[in-house]
Each structure stands twice: as structure tokens, then as C-alpha cells.
Amino acid sequence: MAGLSSAEGLQLARQLLRPQLPHPIHDYILEGVCKALDGTNVLAVLKTGGGKSGYFYGYILLITALQTLSPRCTLLKRKFPANPAMVIIFPTKGLEEEMEAKFRKLSISALAINEDTLAEARRSKRNLWKECIKDLSLLLLSPEQLSSPSFDTLIHNPSFRSRICGLGIDEVHLVHDWGDPSFREAFRNIGLVHARMPRGTTLIAVTATLLAGRETDSLLKTLNLTPGTFFFQRRSNRRNDVQDIYRVLRHGLSGWSFPDLD
After folding, report:
1. Can you provide one Gene Ontology molecular function annotated for this UniProt record (predicted)?
2. pLDDT, tens digit, for every residue of 196-205?
């Protein structure tokens, strides 16, 4: 069985996505998305501004589009629920809410849940966790929510659990960088959440900052990814539009203004 990551599958995926997006998706992102659709976990390292969010929206949009194909299509290696859902973990509330707006502009139902959105929902007598169960496509979470009783209840709710087909992690290098007990220990829970998902849930983890060698090896161990069992994309994160400018400071740093940086 060729799969969607074959040349024929990539061509089909591009055709299915084209009418749903305002611009063509990058070839390398489409390749990673199709690997994920074939059931292979994906770890992608690419520069800031390289389109990392495309892995997430491309995955969920294609799953929905694939429902229109004949069940006899030989490119499909797995079955997907009719109303798929994906859980995506973001490191900051601001990024969560920014991505929520971005996904909604693509006509994808998305909801950010963090302590701020939960507090606002309580004031208007809404239960965000219940709103996720039946119709939501993308659930965007802060790491702190992974250990909450509400999240545990949600992922064991039969209606929601049957829809889960993907787990996304943005800025995955922060699992270690920010996971120190003295800072945000909740990041350590990210490495365990995949095991709590239904069997067959595909992992898509992305970052712009992951050094080769010890740092990569440590992250793979945390995510329980062994070489040869996942698709690893490492692209250049060089930014030609960024320059290093060095200046000698001639003023103190104790005040509220910094004329040397003007």
C-alpha cells in the first residue's frame, strides 16, 4: 500500500488542500503531514516563520477532506473518525489564543483553554470542557491543563476519545528548557500525554530550536521516540533577514530609558 506520503498521495493531498487554503502549503510541510496521515509520528525542526502551524491545520483539514474519497482508495493506510479532533499544546497563553484566531480564519473550529479563558468562561456560565466533546476540531491547551482533572475526564469521555486522531506539540524543545521544577514543571507532563491518548494517535511535534546531539537524544527519550520509528525533518533555521548588531553601552542599565538601543 503506497500511502499518502507517496508521490501519488502527495499530489492528491495537494489537490484536496488547495481550495481550503489562501495560499499553497509548503512542500516540506505537506510531506510531514502526509507521513502523519499514514500513521507515522513526526518531529519537525524549521525556522521561525517557516510555517510550523501548517502541520496542525494541514493535518486536520486533510483528514476531513479524505472523508470524501471512496473507501476503496488504496492510498489510505488507516481509518479516521468522521468528526476528527486534535489536541495541541502551546507554551504560552498568548500563542494559544493567537493560533485559535488563525485556525478559525481557516474555518476550523478551535478553542484555547487556559486559566484565563476558563475564568472568563465561568463568568459567563460556560463550560469549555463540555463544549469540546462533540464538535471541536482543534483543542489548544497550556501545559498546566494536562494534569487537571477536567482534561483527564475529557480524554476518557467516550464521545471525545473516539474522535482523537492527533496530538500536536508546539515549541517542543521547551519540554526540557522550561520543565525545571523551579519554573514550569508542567512542561514535563508533555512527555507523558501521548501515552494517555487512544492507541494510534499520531504525534506531530515542531520547534525552531533543537540542537543535534545530546539535546535531541534527550527529547526523543522524553517523547518515547526511537530512531527509525518516526519521521524527522530538520531544515535550516537560518534567517537571512536577521542581523547581529553590536553596540558599546555608554549609559547605565538601572533606569527606565536605554538610549543606546534607540
Report:
1. 3'-5' DNA helicase activity
2. 999 999 999 9
Interval 22-40: pLDDT, tens: 999 999 999 999 999 999 9
DSSP classification of residue 235: -
Query: Quick one: cell of 62?
Result: 486533510
Sign of dihedral through CA atoms 20, 64, 89, 35? negative
What is the number of alpha carbons within 13 Å of residue 148 lying toward its C-beta?
14
- Residue 62, C-beta contacts closer than 8 angstroms, at least 6 positions apart: 4, 13, 16, 17, 33, 34, 37
Contact of 43 with 233, CB cutoff 8 Å = yes
- Structural domain boundaries of the chain? 7-238
Closest CA to 84 of 138, 128, 126, 40: 138
Give the start-end residues of each E strand in 20-141: 41-45, 85-89, 110-113, 138-141
Using alpha carbons, list the distances in angstroms from residue 208 to 172, 173, 192, 205, 232.
9, 8, 22, 11, 13
Say how far apart CA 138 and CA 123 lie, in whole Å.
23
The SS3 call for residue 48 is coil
